[in-house]
Amino acid sequence: METGASKGTSSQQSHVTTVLRQFAVYIANLFFLTSDAWAPVVSDAELNEETAEQYNLILVGSPLENSWVEKYHEKVPLKYKDKSLALGDCTFSSPQTGAVFLVPHAGSRLALVISGNSIEGIRDAVHLATPTIHQ
After folding, report:
1. Mean pLDDT by groups of 10 residues along the chain of 135 residues
2. Are 125 and 116 contacting, i.e. CB atoms less than 8 angstroms apart?
3. Other beta carbons within 10 Å of 53
4. Where are the strands (E) in 1-135, listed by range?
């Protein structure tokens, strides 16, 4: 499980980082409760390629806050632009827009990306993913 470090002001950065970490801990706890497996929570700065290649990943945040989310947004047709998400000709700019998608990662591994155009959008995406994670 991996969260991002915001690139905003230090006060904004601290708040966003705290909220993203809370989302990641929530998902890690659900994972533990439903599968009896441990999912460590680390920041994008703490996760290196060598370690990442050994695991499936759950990435939380937007491309502005999380370098790993940015990396995987570049591999899918869903694009993050000016606080909106674009898919083809459709642009989603509501401040509560979130996205949940799987991306191939490190051979046969996967990365689950939980992203959005705001903290509220990411929160909605986390809640959308909850029933899937719960089963």
Report:
1. 51 85 93 86 94 95 93 92 91 93 95 94 89 55
2. yes
3. 12
4. 2-3, 42-43, 57-60, 78-81, 84-87, 90-92, 98-105, 109-116
Distance CA 58, CA 68 (A): 10
Q: Give residue 8's pLDDT.
A: 44
Q: Residue 17's closest CA among 53, 37, 50, 41?
A: 41
33: number of Cβ within 10 Å: 10
Encoded amino acid at 95, one letter? P
pTM: 0.84
Distance of CA 105 to the CA centre of its chain: 14
Joined together, the tokens standing for residue 9 give 């002001």
Amino acid at 38: W
Amino acid at site 56: N
